[in-house]
Amino acid sequence: MTSVIDRLGSPAATGLPGPPASPRIPRKRRRRIAAAAMVAPTVAGLLVFYAYPLVASIYYSFTSYDLFSPPRWVGLTNYEFLFTSDPRIGNAALNTLWFVVVLVPIKIVVALAIAGLLARRTRGSGFWRTVFYLPSLVPPVAGVVAFVFLFNPGSGPVNVVLGFFGIEGPLWFSDPALSKPSLVLLGIWMMGDLMVIMLAGLLDVPRELYEAASLDGANGWQQVRFVTLPTIQPILGFSVVTGVIAALQYFTEAAVASSVASGQASVGSGTASTLGYPGDSLLTYTQWLYARGFSNYQLGYASAMAVVLFVTASILLVVAMRRISAFQPEEVS
Amino acid sequence: MSAVTAAPAQVGSDQRAVRRRPRRLAGRALLTWIAEHALLLALAVVFVSPVVFVVFTSVMHSNQALTGDLVPRSLELGNYVRIFSEAPLATWYGNTVLYAVLSTAFMLVASVPAGYALAKLRFRGSNVIFLAIVVAMLLPPQVTAVPVYVMWSELGLTGSLWPLILPNLLGDAFSVFLIRQFFLTIPTDFANAARMDGASEWGVLWRVMIPMARPGIAAAAIFLFFRSWNDYYGPLLYASENQAAWPVAYGLATYRGIHGTDWAGTMALTVVVLVPVVVVFFLAQKVFVEGIALSGVKG
Fold it and tell me: What CATH superfamily classification does A89-326 receive?
């Protein structure tokens, strides 16, 4: 069956003019060899750093392994513990889910709103774009350290400014109820790359569509609803899928916020001592995986957590590869 | 239907626009202009103020930094000197530069040919390889972390940044993807002309295609440079036990832990981590903005 399709697809079978046969063959073969050489290192990288580790993760997930003695087969024990007995994993998964459900949409809406404001400007747009884009380049660690300082309850500028208005500022990064929202504020500050993608999309919406819509009597909001959003829908889809995949692995901001806000040394022990501060509110799934695997050397259990993460991410991967055209292979020319 | 009615009306509105050329904003338009600019300005102040407060605090006396003062009373540039003696900052900086520069150079060697071949050369399996690259680029790194860590630990390279630098010699998924997307937008005519003149495939790539793809390649290089410069998870995984191998961003994350109440020093260190990023951005602004649009939606 496939061979028939192959033949149907070839120029000879479809009757389309192909390249002249005989004198071209050495050329084509040389081209194939060159192409193989060009992709060979990357293919090797895919095998060594992705294909093998994926298989090995699944194997390790059925073992007890501490890096120092060989892995010992334990069957489904790791998974059983993961789903029934691990005292902190449920909370960690819920925290990650919180970032998926809250952080991702808020970032997209803010990025779209600011891009919308900028898309209407012609003069000075470069200046405004730079102002809103630049924070996204800030190293996340520096951004978190800066925000923990800005929001620190004792002397932080945010609470000082709130004080000018007679508001007693909350504890922000030290309050379990506000630590995640504080990181959302950081995420908004750093949404610039998303904003640039949205802006490129908005500037591509043909002007005639708006003119036609306004002739049909559509008001401002209706134009956004029925012209802008449908046209940039591929970009929104891209932002949602890649945003959710990024949120699933949310690690650096939460780990650094915990460590810096608690003010405790975490040298050498990674993030173990300050994990999740305050009160486990910032403990995400990937941090817990890291702690299990690389602070406690429960590599088998960490692999089981990795497999569960992989299964979750796979659903999104499939959506991403089906719906986002940039992720689909196309006819090479 | 609407297209038919729209066409003449559009001509009309264009003529009106021409007649109204003298740029005087009337009533409502002026109000909208003011409202939008006021909103933009307010947002800009909110977005810029974190950096301003960080810089202000970095030049405060360390005692003043503990008070609620927003503006420094004196200019204490000594904070910037002090942090160099309180942390092995020169070493950390050197590690970061090594990490970012080598990663980028290695990535280019492997990823430019791969991106080109996937975009422009027809060969069996290229679609499968492309799909594998997309999966690799979207896969959370924690999924493969354990076996990859075991590999590097068996090679005796944990405790250094090499496990983060060396893999780039075998290509970087996102970079290959980005470079491929850019090559797709380049017409093949010049390449075919060079082939007619007898150039080899590598000659076509090196002398014809790479010069034309320079913006895309530059974008991929800058993205990887900053991904390495900003990286926290990688150094935490591989180098956290060896302080001499830390990059500066990782060192910053631990600094406050060691120097608990030293906000002035912490902010000075934050500025030191931040400045190179800002400088490179202003040197290569166009590359950034175009590259980002390219990573989202192609062409």
Answer: MetI-like (1.10.3720.10)
